[in-house]
Each structure stands twice: as C-alpha cells, then as structure tokens.
Amino acid sequence: MTTVEKFLKKPIFSLIFSVLLGFLVSSIILVITGYSVPDVLQSLFEGVFSRPRHMANVIIKSTPIILTGVSIALAFKAGLFNMGAEGQFILGSVAALITGSILDLPPVLQVLAIIVSGIIAGALLGALTGFLKSKFGAHEVITGIMFNWMALHFSNFIVNLKEFHKPNSASTFPIKSSGFTGIRSNLGFLKDTSFSDILKTEVNLGIIIAVIVAIFMSIVINKTKKGYEICAIGLNEKAAESAGMNVFKNIIQVMTVSGGISGLAAALMVTGISPHSVSASTNFENNGFNGLAVALIASNSPIGCIFSGLFFGGLLYGGRSVQADVGTPSEIINIIIGVIIFFVAIAKIFPLVVSKFSKKNCEENHA
Amino acid sequence: MSLETQISPKYAVQMRGILKSFGAKKVLSEFNIDIKKGTVHALLGENGAGKSTLMNILYGLHRADCGKIFLNGKATNIRSPADAIKNKIGMVHQHFMLIDKFTVLENVILGNETTNKFGILNIKKARDRILKVSRKHGLNIDLDAKVEDISVGMQQRVEILKALYRDADILIFDEPTAVLSPAEIEDFIRIIRKFILEDKTVIIVTHKLREIMNSADKCTIIRSGINVDTLDITEKTCQKDLAQGMICSFTGSNVKRDKFNPGNVVLRVKNLNTKNEKKVLALKNFSLEVRAGEILGVAGVDGNGQKELVDSITGLLKVESGTIEINGKQIQNTSPRNVLDNKVSIIHEDRSKVGLILDYTVAENSVITKYRSANFSKHGILKRKSIRSFAKNLIEKYNIKPNNCANIPARNLSGGNQQKLAIAREISNEPDLLIAVQPTRGLDIGAVEHVHNVLIEERSKGRAILLISLEIDEILQISDTVCVIYNGCNLGEFDRNAADGKKVTNKKKSDKRTLDEKETISKKESDKTTPDEKETINKKESDKRILDEKEIGFLMMGGRKNDYSRKIS
Ligand SMILES: Nc1ncnc2c1ncn2[C@@H]1O[C@H](COP(=O)(O)OP(=O)(O)OP(=O)(O)O)[C@@H](O)[C@H]1O
Ligand SMILES: [Mg+2]
C-alpha cells in the first residue's frame, strides 16, 4: 500500500473529505436557488470565527447537543437506539424548572439540586424505556417516540400551571437566580482584553461538565469491565448472554445512564442560558434529535461527540448569521446542514472507494 | 508447483498469479490453479492457509491485488458476486445465507424473481422451474416448508438449489460437511457426483480427508497461500499422502491415554423435560451422568435434542421438569452466569453467533467468560495488559494463526483459527465440567488431533467432559462412555472398550467406493492405538457391556429403545 493510499484510508481524512464534499453539494444547491456561494460561506465562517463572542456562543449552543450526543452514543454501544433522548431532555428540563422554582437554597446547593433533579427525571424515563425493552421486547425506538410526545405534552401542562406560568407569555417564570450557572461576573479580568466581548455572552459552566462527562463515558466504555460488557451486548447479545453477562440488567442500566445524561443536558441549559425557563411548544426543540446527528458524526465515540457537537453547533449558530446577512431562508440552511451531515454519515465508504480505485503495484508486491 | 498449464477451454477455472494481502499480511502469493471441467476438485490446507480467501476471490467477495481468472479459457473480471453469478458461478457458504422465516421457495427465488412485464411475481412459473431443477438433481425438498423448520442438511440443499436455479455451472462449497451428519454427508456426496455427469464443475473446501477420497477427482494442497501440489485422487491415493503434503505437524499418533478411573459424578441430569423454541417437547425424561475423569460422548443425528440439552445445562433454556446438578448443586433454570460460576465451560456449537464476538479483538475474546476474575479486572477497570499477555499465551499454546493476532478483530481470523480461539479460552478456564459441542468443526487434521489430545489430557486431569458431536468417529475415538440420543431420549450408554476403534455404518445405502474407503480408514484408525494400551483397557473394562458396532448406528437412526442403564460404581 502506498503512503497516499494509507492516508486516504484514515478515518480523519474521510471526515474532512466528506465535510468538503458536503459543502460542495451545498454550493450547488445554493447556486440553483440563486444565492452567492462565496457570500454564504463567508458569512457562515465569519459568523463563527470572526469574534470571540461568536465562538463563545457556538460553545454555549453546543453544550446540550454534545451531551445528548454522548447519551445516544452510549446507548448505541449497547446496541440501543435512544430515540427517546428528546423526551428525556424535555423531562429533565421540566424537573429542573420545578426544582429551581420551588427550592431556594444557597447558590451552589441550588445548582446541584437542579442538576440532580434533571438527571433523575431523564434517567427514570430512560430506565422505563430500557425496562420495556428488556422485559417485554418493546422496541426502544417506538417507545422512545411515544415518550417524546408524552414528555412534550406533560411539559406543556406544567408550563401552563399557574404556579409556574408567566402571564402573557408562552413560558414559565425563570428559576430562582441562585440556580444560575453563568460565570460572566467571574470573568471581569477579561474586560480590557480583546476577549472582552465574551462578556456579552452567557458563558456558563455547562461546557466544562459536558467535556468531563464525555471523557468519563469514554473511560467507562473503553477501560472498564462495565464498558466491556456493554459493548459485548451491543455487538453480539447472544454471545454476551452465554458468557454470563446479564443482558436484562445491562440494558436497563445503560438506558438509565443514557437518559440521565440527556436530563443533565437539559438541566444545564435551564441553569445556564436565559430565559432560564421552559416554554410551551407544539413541537420539539430538537436537542435530542440533534444529538443523534452528533453521535452519528462522531461514530459513537463520546470524545468525538465533543468535536462533532461543536461542529454541529457551529453550523446551527453560523447558519443564523447567514440568514441575517445574506437573507438565505432557514429552510435552505437546514438543507445544507442536512447535506453535510449526510456526507459525514456515509464517510465510512470512502476507504472502500479508495481501495476500489487503487491499482496495486504487483511488481512491488512480488519483491 | 506443477508445470504451467496452457489456458484452455477444457478448464472451467484457471487462476494465474493471484496475489492477496490483508494489510501487511500476504495471504496468497502467486497462486496458480487449474480446475478441469466436469470434475470435483478439492482444496485442502491448514487452517489459515488461504482456501476461503481464494474461493471468495473467485466468487467476487474479495478482489485479488493482482492476478487473472480464466473461465472456460476466457479471461474474466469478477468484481462482485453478481459478476460471478452472471458467469455461472455459485457458492454455498459455510454459514448459510437463508432467511429463516421464508419458505424454501421464497428463499430460492429471492434476488432472482421471475416476474411478468409489470414486475409482478410469477410464483407459478418459478415453482415449476425449481421443481424441475430439484427433481433433476434428486434434491427432494419441500418447497413450502419454512427454512427454520428444516434440518441443516436440507438447508444446505436449499443453498444448492439456489445456485442451480441461477444456472450455476461452477459450484463452490466452503466446508460443506462441517455441519452435516454422516448420512447427510453421503447424500451430499451423491448429489455432487451427479453434477459432474452434466459437465458441471464442483470445487470443495474441506478438512475431511475421507470425503476427499470419496468425492473428489483431484485435490490441490495449499500451504501458506502457495499451491504445493495437485494430486489425482485414485483408489491408490493414501490419506497419509494428503495429510503430509498439507502440514508437517501431523503425526498421526494418539496421546497416551491414562486408564479410565472415574471419580465423583460432576454432572447429573435427571428426568429432564425441555421444550424447544417451537414449544414442542425436545427432551423427554432425559437422564445422564458424567463423572470426573470421564469423557461422555453423546452420539446422535442432528436435531434430536442435543441443542436443547446443552442450552438447558448452560441456563439459556428453561426446563419444564427434572433436575440438573453440578457437583450435587441444582442449577436448572438459573442464569448462565450461575452455571459458569459453578465451574462449567462450554465450547459452543456456533462460534460466530454464540462463541465469539467477532468484532472484538482476539484478546478481548479470550477473556469473555472470565473478565470478571481478579486477574483481568480490578476495581471495575480492565487490565488490558494482562488480558493481552493471557491471549498471547493461548495463541502460542494452540497455534492460532497469524501468531501476532492478539489485537486484530476475531472476524479477521480464518474459520478454523476462530474455533481454536474458542476452544483455547474454554479449556483455560480449568472447569470441573467441560461441554464440548462439535469442538473440531472446521479444524484441519493437525488441529483436530491437537484438540483431541488436549481433551484427553484434561480428562486425565480429572475433569468431566461432555462431548456432543455429529461425527461418530470423533465420539468413538476419544470418549470413555458413549450414549445415544434419539428423539429427545437417551437410548443407553456403552463403554469405550466396546466402541473403540470400530466403525459405525449407517443403515443408509452408500455406493461401493464409499464403503471400501471406510473400511481401510477404520483399519488405520484402530492401528493408532498401541497394542499394550489396548490391552490395559481390555483388562480393566472387560466386565462392561460389549456393544455391536452397528448398534449405535442403529439406535441413532431410532432403531429401538434400549433399557440398559449403567450401574453406578
Ligand atoms: N478480512 C481479513 N482481514 C485480515 N486478515 C484476514 C481477513 N480474512 C482472512 N484473513 C487472514 O487470511 C488468512 C487466510 O484466511 P482464510 O480464511 O482464507 O483461511 P482458510 O484456509 O479458509 O482457513 P480455515 O481452514 O481455518 O477456514 C488467515 O491468516 C486470516 O487471518
Ligand atoms: Mg475457511
């Protein structure tokens, strides 16, 4: 194999190549719909990188989807497709809201209480999904979708309770301010530096927790006995079972933790980003569904989810500025995001394509 | 390598200069082979020699790095199985590619549906054609049976029918007989011999020398990806020639067998009733005992309750009534984990679905039943280093190839080497009871010998071994006690002395050639036991029941119920 071929077969190359291909195809779509490709690209790029503030916002925007991505990646290792991450997220945010509104503890404790309640809410829903799967064989995708809708309507119900509902709005009152995780006030030292505009954003502790969770899950999956069991079940359930692994228990455990991480994502959003409240909605906010794309791009590696989450968050955030600067409708931007994700998702075929087209040098092999 | 033959239409397949490497590993180097039209051509070689790879290249599943394939004298590019089928090549894989829930008919037409001009299936026309093909070749299959309801032998015929329905002239079989019972093997050989009367060409990969003697016209021996020799198979060809051409490590000698000195009962199965997946009673009042230091061989035709017996013991299947005891402790209807904790190890029948996790590395697979032990994990963290060195140990001890495979996925091992890995792992557990189901499936003769020796060694160390095999020879060769399972019942037990060295011929008719070969082979096998060794066995166990060699075969075919029950000492 030549060095070029070797390089071409590296996963990282496939990833870069597919992103480029995604942009190429997106450009064609833009041309067809009559938008200037350079303008759009420039606006997208500047929308993400031109100012520290933008970058900070990308990170803030990415935090929840990194976590839902990790949640889905973990479930996937056990062979489970956690379609219900959306619902777990919603339930987590409802729990965070209730705890954050009712309790009024000192700042650190308040935050902890909210986060724990979010985790528990998501975990319970995940556990239920896992239980239905392992006890009755109910497919997690079907139950997940059902729970998503139930969670959404439950959330709307809570939002409209008079204890929480903010009059003349679609949302609730914010949680008590002792539960906020913003760290703007601690970053005063940035005031006179060129990073000062970061202070205009809602920098919060979420990303740190998200990164820690991703690293922790990566260790669990790759280094521990538990991770070994989980992956074994995901790869060959029958072999795992006859090797004495408890499939029933593991599926419930994985779904519990997976749901807990989605719930955590929600709690971090409620504590970290204004309006620190929950709104009634007839449709999903897609924090869970975007996690599916994040996990997919990362090939279900938790660490990979950090980067793919940032990438996806960048597209979402940068997309807004494209909309503002160039006037491209959001549908087109969503199509572009979809195209890029599509190519990344099929990145695995590139090594195959490379070997198909490479003519191996027989003389070299003879030697 | 034999003299270079000219490219000519007389040959169905000619491969020239085939090179194939996986990463840095060269699997086939400069491989040349000529396969004459209208012959059965066998491929023989050690595990990992490259036989499957070669056949996968011919069928378009792999692409050679370079080299040419000529079909009927014409250079042909085969890039995919679709190309192969277009060129009238059919392949029956070792693991059948059938859809269980479909009927035979549906499976056969799948992917090659006969439709009218609106794209609507024309089942009637398809059925007529299939029936014609099936009759012509004496395949005898019920087209409307569901695949999950028919035996493995029948499933193989469905695969054959699939290939024939697509007009295959060249049929490739990769280890076709590994899953068949002796009677089914005879049928199989009859069917392929018939093909060549129609000028079809059959290529068969197998480790069973006797089958080559019985069915093949020529045999090519592959050693580490090189065509060592191609022999004509005649009456005079001797198995030793084949074996020795293939490997150097084959000695043809048996390990010294300590005298049979059974200890306490380790496994006691008593009046077991178990239903199978279809909720039909598959074991009926089944009882059996295996003592420490004993190999108990369970003989029987596939599908008579062996699977249910193993699954009940291992905790994968609920039993209706009856008890299973390990060292006096009841374990029926507990969990697989509990069974393993009671020092039971299982070499599973199906390595790729149950025995191994193919996407795990060899090292990861080597601890799949014992990663919980303190040697391999501490405070919940896996000790990767110890796992790897443990795996390296097994690789060396069982000659698993390639010998630096600890970190590659088990999927990339050849079939036989996967099997060696599964066996090595289970034996290294040092169990009280070892259940070995078809332990030598897919192994080359050197490896079979090694595994048999290891089993006998383990038995001499005082382990109880329950051996379940469709190969009656294997059972007779290494068991101390033999029992026959038929239709879910235990038809009685017989001691080794009676069964030793003798051949069981089935009631089924076989052509003359087959019988003759069998005779010579069985003589050779009995010669392996040294005279004085035989004598000790004779003296020790002469008081036990003597068994007519035909009786096991008779019982296996459901001859009659035997009321003999072993006296427990
Ligand atoms: N996909 C793969 N990737 C890497 N190595 C492979 C792959 N497939 C096969 N090999 C290697 O190629 C060699 C030949 O394998 P092959 O399956 O052809 O052997 P075989 O002759 O069929 O052996 P067996 O009798 O055990 O089935 C083995 O050493 C195997 O490890
Ligand atoms: Mg093979």
Which consecutive residue ranges of chain A, at least 5 long each, have pLDDT under 50?
Answer: 363-367
Query: And the CATH topology of the largest domain in chain B?
Result: Rossmann fold
Main sheet: strands, sense, barrel of chain A: none
Return the CATH architecture of chain A.
Orthogonal Bundle
Tell me, rounded to a whole number, the average pLDDT of chain A. 89
Spell the H/E element sequence of chain A. HHHHHHHHHHHHHHHH
Strand content of chain A: under 5%
Largest interface by residue count? A-B, 24 and 37 residues
Radius of gyration of chain B: 24 Å
Please give the CATH architecture of the largest domain in chain B.
Answer: 3-Layer(aba) Sandwich
Distance between the termini of chain B: 59 Å
Quaternary structure state of the chains depicted: heterodimer
Helix content of chain A: over 70%
* Tally of separate domains of chain A: 1
Structure in a nutshell:
The complex is a heterodimer of chains A (367) and B (569). Chain A is an all-alpha fold and 367 residues long. Chain A has helices spanning 3-9, 11-33, 37-49, 52-77, 85-102, 107-136, 140-159, 206-223, 225-235, 237-242, 247-272, 287-297, 302-325, 330-345, 349-357, 362-366.
Question: How does this structure look, described?
Answer:
The complex is a heterodimer of chains A (367) and B (569). Chain A is mainly alpha-helical. Chain A has one domain: ABC transporter involved in vitamin B12 uptake, BtuC. In chain A, 72% of the residues lie in helices and 0% in strands. In chain A, helix 5 runs antiparallel to helix 6. A 6-stranded mixed sheet of chain B has the order 6-7-8-3-9-10, with helices on both faces. Chain B has a 6-stranded mixed sheet with strand order 16-19-20-13-21-22, sandwiched between helices. The radius of gyration of chain B is 24 Å and the shape is globular. In chain B, strand 19, helix 15 and strand 20 form a beta-alpha-beta unit. The chains are: A mainly alpha (367), B alpha/beta (569). At the A-B interface, helix 9, helix 10 and helix 16 of A face strand 1, helix 10, helix 11 and strand 18 of B. The site of adenosine-5'-triphosphate (ATP) has 21 residues of chain B, from strand 2, helix 1 and helix 14.
